[in-house]
Amino acid sequence: GMATGNKLRHVESLQEMPSGAGKISCLNAVILGEALASEENDLVFPSDDFARQAHVSSPQQYLEMYKRSVEDPAGFWSDIASEFYWKQKWDQPVCSENFDFRKGNISIQWFKGGLTNICYNCLDRNIESGNADKIAIYWEGNDLGVEDSLTYAQLLDRVCQLANYLKAIGVKKGDAVVIYLPMLMELPIAMLACARIGAVHSVVFAGFSSESLAQRILDCKPKVVITCNAVKRGAKAIHLKDIVDAALVDSAKNGISDFVPKYPPTCEVEWVDAEDPLFLLYTSGSTGKPKGVLHTTGGYMVYTATTFKYAFDYKPSDIYWCTADCGWITGHSYVTYGPLLNGASVVVFEGAPTYPDAGRCWDIVDKFKVTIFYTAPTLYVTRYSRKSLRVLGSVGEPINPSAWRWFFNVVGNSRCPISDTWWQTETGGFMITPLPGAWPLKPGSATFPFFGVQPVIVDEKGVEIEGECSGYLCVKSSWPGAFRTLYGDHERYETTYFKPFAGYYFTGDGCSRSNGQKIADGLHPCFRDKDGYHWLTGRVDDVINVSGHRIGTAEVESALVSHPKCAEAAVVGVEHEVKGQGIYAFITLVEGEPYSEELRKSLILTVRKQIGAFAAPDKIHWAPGLPKTRSGKIMRRILRKIASRQLDELGDTSTLAEPHVVEQLIELADR
Ligand code: WTA
């Protein structure tokens, strides 16, 4: 098994890192075993056997590659990009960017002038290299015993049939296509079919309601919406087609046709520029309106493939399963594109991980002999042996050291390294992640930046801080997988991500350099410890992550206030044992309206209808008034403390317009 504890291993001295990556050099301290009894010094080493076979098998090897990736990004990434098929190589600099709004518009370009196609690289290229009969997708249905699979050659046929159909109904290069499907094989097929003909897909998670779907349709004006009649999730049937019909009534009335796949199984590839859009994915920010995160083709392709290969130490013999839904970025980058670009066999699971019982996940792992299992920390339960596993992955929320230990000891039999991957819809792929053969892990830390990524921690003024500290997590200069704009709103892109800290991409996450350290207002930022390990501890804005589903508190609030009896709403995230974060809503009713169980239910129903069931508040807290500053700003810091019942940490309430509302709220906490 893997050795744990403060053992002296990998004792060679490490070279000093170039500027911008200087923090890494302090890894010396860990490696030479400066052991203190604390979480930060709790090291879990890869076994010799694992390290020996790994793509990157020592810190030295990582550091050499990392050094090159930041000193010579063009050389580093063009070597990797050359392993893919390009109809025509890029004729402009590998990367050009402006990250500083003071110098003009923000822009990022990678491989500009290169012509390629990501579907071709996922399918045709792997088929030509001898993988035609390798399984591309193992599909496991919601109900036991319902399953299917497709080889790479069969997957290509299906993709081409749909691509031909889309062309036949007039979809052209650059057109948007909305995909509203559950986790059927048709979902990755539809994504790939769009990519093949140069159409821009926008997958909407099938848990979103018709109103949310309509909002997205109105924003990106697709030529087509691809859906299916109904889906079973657990014991429940959900009629997706009815939801789409309702959304179309809300957004655009158009002909609805049923798809019969009688189209030929070959389809010419549309070669697109590396900077042509590949997809739009709507995600939540701190204001009400979802943002259309736009990713382009070439850089995203190279980045998702490379991060997949290294962070999971992928080998052709692996069977890979990611439990994410393709409605979220994790499903885009690490169910569909990253694995298929590597020629991997991917398990796609339609159902809920707890149906028919909590052992379902482990049944699936055993059934397909899954070797790499990538999931959110909220998945749990032990029961079966998971002998096949060799690498575990975690995403979406901070994993606390005891959950990490559980995942490591129980699921992985103390044998499988955990890649705790930190990234975002906006980043396209992993940003801070272990390379499982290279580093000793620290339970709860996402460890070090991926190749080419230069994370920095800044203070409120945007000044970079070195050494052990805490602050806001930013990134200096671009990486190939970075999003290029927010669809139709480049100004919002600049304002949200590039203006808070001039010269950097602001992630919205905090980072701190001592486990548990917090910044002033009680939010948990990210930190980097004395050894250069990064500890991500959550968002510093009003975005929350509920069971791996990203949602803005403002969106939930605007759904709640649309209820005729709700005068005002304030929503905060609270720690939730199962979901990671739960949704906690403070509600002020219109004058004279009494509290009632019925009203509580009807408020929750409003959110389910307007956003989707996953966004339904876990708790409604009646609030005769909300704590506000004299200028009328809601003090969320205080609401967060009340919601998590940390009543002795309310801090200074003297600046409130009406300090007594706090006592009122505390009294009503369990009503
Ligand atoms: C959070 C999901 C801690 C973070 C891929 C980020 C994490 C947000 C981790 C993005 C992790 C993601 N440790 N926090 N390993 N991974 N997050 O866009 O707050 O749905 O900003 O992308 O999830 O959520 P999104």
Automatic annotation (TrEMBL):
Residues 62-122 form the Acetyl-coenzyme A synthetase N-terminal domain. Residues 555-633 form the AMP-binding enzyme C-terminal domain. InterPro entries: ACAS_N, AMP-bd_C, AMP-bd_C_sf, AMP-binding_CS, AMP-dep_synth/lig_dom, ANL_N_sf. One of its GO terms (biological process) is acetyl-CoA biosynthetic process. It comes from the Eukaryota. Its EC number is 6.2.1.1. One of its GO terms (molecular function) is acetate-CoA ligase activity. Residues 131-478 form the AMP-dependent synthetase/ligase domain. This is acetate--CoA ligase.
